[in-house]
């Protein structure tokens, strides 16, 4: 059921995006989890090193685009000896279905985790129809 409502692009290193970066850094496809309740979908994307000011979310033609840029962070006065974490940008797109109320989408960034709330339109929410007697 969720695949109809929110189709994520296949996870991969975002080396061939439609947009070309100007920063000379690699772009990665952030790992995401998607949750569903009766009233909304929630997309959680890991974007380590990205502050809320470094996140851009665009919505155009039912395509939700996430972009993030991390600043180079290292403890003051220290020189890296070994690093597994690569700094760079994040880029990922999702196609939204008609059940998402696009006017009510909201987002929050905390500790490198982006949480996007995608409320469902009223007609898509399950409800019981009460039958009255005439």
Would you write up a description of this structure?
- By secondary structure, this protein is mainly β.
- Helices cover 3% and strands 42% of the residues.
- It contains 1 helix and 9 strands, in the order αβββββββββ.
- Strands 1, 2, 5, 6 and 7 form a 5-stranded mixed β-sheet that branches. Strands 3-4-9-8 form a 4-stranded antiparallel β-sheet, with no helix packed on it.
- A hairpin with a 2-residue loop joins strand 8 and strand 9.
- The longest helix is centred in the first third of the chain and has 4 residues.
- It is elongated and about 80 Å long.
Q: Tell me, rounded to a whole number, the average pLDDT.
A: 83
- Write the element-wise H/E pattern from the N-terminal end onward: HEEEEEEEEE
Return the structural class. Answer: mainly beta
Shape: elongated
**Helix fraction?**
under 10%
Radius of gyration: 19 Å
Biggest sheet architecture: 5 strands, mixed
């Amino acid at each position: 059921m969720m695949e109809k409502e929110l189709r994520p692009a296949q996870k991969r290193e975002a080396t061939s995006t439609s947009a070309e970066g100007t920063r000379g850094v690699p772009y990665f496809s952030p790992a995401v989890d998607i949750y569903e309740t009766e009233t909304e979908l929630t997309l959680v994307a890991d974007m380590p090193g990205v502050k809320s000011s470094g996140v851009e979310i665009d919505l155009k033609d039912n395509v939700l685009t996430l972009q993030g840029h991390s600043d180079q962070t290292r403890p003051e006065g220290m020189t890296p000896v070994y690093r597994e974490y690569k700094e760079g940008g994040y880029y990922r797109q999702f196609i939204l279905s008609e059940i998402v109320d696009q006017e009510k989408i909201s987002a929050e960034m905390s500790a490198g985790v982006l949480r996007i709330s995608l409320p469902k339109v009223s007609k898509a929410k399950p409800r019981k129809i009460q039958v009255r007697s005439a």
